[in-house]
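Researcher: Please predict.
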Amino acid sequence: MAFDEQQEGVNADELSKSRTGNPRSIQQRTDSESDISSPLPQIPTCCKNLRILDITKCKKLTDTGIEWLVPKTAELSKTLLELMVGCQAVTKRGIIFAVQNCPSLEVVENINMFDALVELARSSALAQPSILNTNITRLTLRPADVYISGQLELVVRFCPSKG
């Protein structure tokens, strides 16, 4: 599997060899069913200042993979602005984990994002209202989804307002 870094050129082999590279954006270039498990744990260590991570074509990525990518202790959790995850094995649980551990996230593209934000809003309203302090700037609503009355109002609380 190869990754495409938009400024410095990074692939999976370079991630495993170099601990000094600091790409700002990584995108998987192939849609093969390759095993993501080998470079995945290295991304938070080697790419501490990563801003954009597009892993939409990683077919074997799971919630556990998301937990490897963005543990609270990783620098990446503080710098990541955009996360694009297309794998169906990443569930609402994985997206909730990413949103909770990456306070700088502005964009999360995943089919479970809306439901994850609804669940976070409901649980935070009961426990910790401060969790609603996020930087989400883009939310895509899917026309095929079923929305229940009041869900949109819960989710927009995650979007920062100017004022």
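Model: The chain has seven helices and five strands.
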